[in-house]
Amino acid sequence: MSKLIIANWKMNPSSESEAIRLAKASDAKGVVICPPSIFLNQIHSILKIADLGAQDVFWENPIPGGAFTGEVSISMLKKSGASHVILGHSERRRYLNETDEIINKKLLSALAFELKVILCIGEPISIKKEGILAAKNFVKKQLLKSLAGIENLKTQAKNLILTYEPVWAISAGLGTGHADTPENAAAMINYIKELLVTRYSLSVNKVIYGGSVTSANVARILEYKEIEGALVGSASLKAEEFKKIIKISSQIQ
Ligand code: 13P
Predict the structure, then answer these.
(1) Cα–Cα dist 130/125, whole Å
(2) Angle of helix 239-250 relative to helix 16-26, nearest 10 degrees?
(3) Rounded to whole angstroms, how far apart are CA atoms 214 and 249?
(4) Mean pLDDT on 192-212
(5) H or E segment at 229?
(6) Atom of ligand 1 at shortest distance to CA of 173?
(7) Mutate which of 56, 117, 213 to test ligand 1's pocket (most atoms within 8 Å of Cβ)?
């Protein structure tokens, strides 16, 4: 099965022209580009191959609109060409106080309206220091809370992409600033897959890894067949670097 590469641009770049340049350079098969929502329409109009994703969405989806200051609805995202949405990113958990309960509401709503969800889970450095068992327990709790009620949406599991993204491995984070070892990432991903099957009999679209993925380590990471793709942050903002990542990934089955 081919690997999936998702670019999370976070709050970058600073101009529309730079966003367009970057999107054109990143437009390839097996890629999802997630720019800030203000650039979605424009990027949608130039993408020919890659899919488009948002970095967040609100849980209520009133049509045509509602009184939710600052929020963007699922229908608005879909109209702007987005097929995917990132939910549960650790930066939103940390800076916006997003809880598993909030993430769960967003996830159920997005799936119900057939938006593909890229759900991020992963432990902080304090838990990592306690060892793999603590990390597994932490991730299990996040997963079960975020997926509460998924039983009623089983047919939508094909629209769910799970990302194991340990907080300590994110380049801009408060942890080690380096990627997880491929062995550990694979072990955690196997654990997540096992949980999905035993708890929900759920077979999701993909389970991928995020955290300091670069052209230098992506091959070693994706060579593990259980790691079905990568969520890329800072390296997705450098056109040449991201192209290398896409190329390497396309050569691995
Ligand atoms: P980096 O690739 O910069 O570590 O960011 C990872 C990330 O947060 C993607 O969602």
Answers:
(1) 9
(2) 20
(3) 11
(4) 93
(5) strand 229-232
(6) 4
(7) 213
CA separation for the pair 110, 72 (Å, rounded): 12
What is the C-alpha to C-alpha distance for residues 192 and 95, in angstroms, rounded to an integer? 25
* Domain membership of residue 14 as a residue range: 4-250
Q: Which residues on neighbouring strands pair with residue 119, listed in sequence order?
A: 87, 162
Q: Which residue is it, tokens 């130039």?
A: 46
Q: Which of 44, 89, 123, 228 is catalytic?
A: 89
Name the CA dihedral angle for 109, 153, 97, 68, rounded to a multiple of 10 degrees. Answer: 10
pLDDT above 80: residue 1? no
Q: Quick check: 184 and 166 in contact, CB under 8 A?
A: no
89 flagged as catalytic: yes
Q: What's the mean pLDDT in 120-131? A: 97
Determine how many CB atoms are found less than 10 A away from the CB of residue 160: 23
Q: Can you read off the two tokens belonging to residue 147? A: 């997926």
117: closest CA among 59, 172, 200?
59
Say if pTM beats, i.e. exceeds, 0.90. yes
Domain of 35, CATH number, reads 3.20.20.70
Given the structure tokens 């060579």, which residue do they identify? Answer: 223
Domain count for the chain: 1
How far from the centroid of its chain's Cα atoms is residue 228's Cα? 12
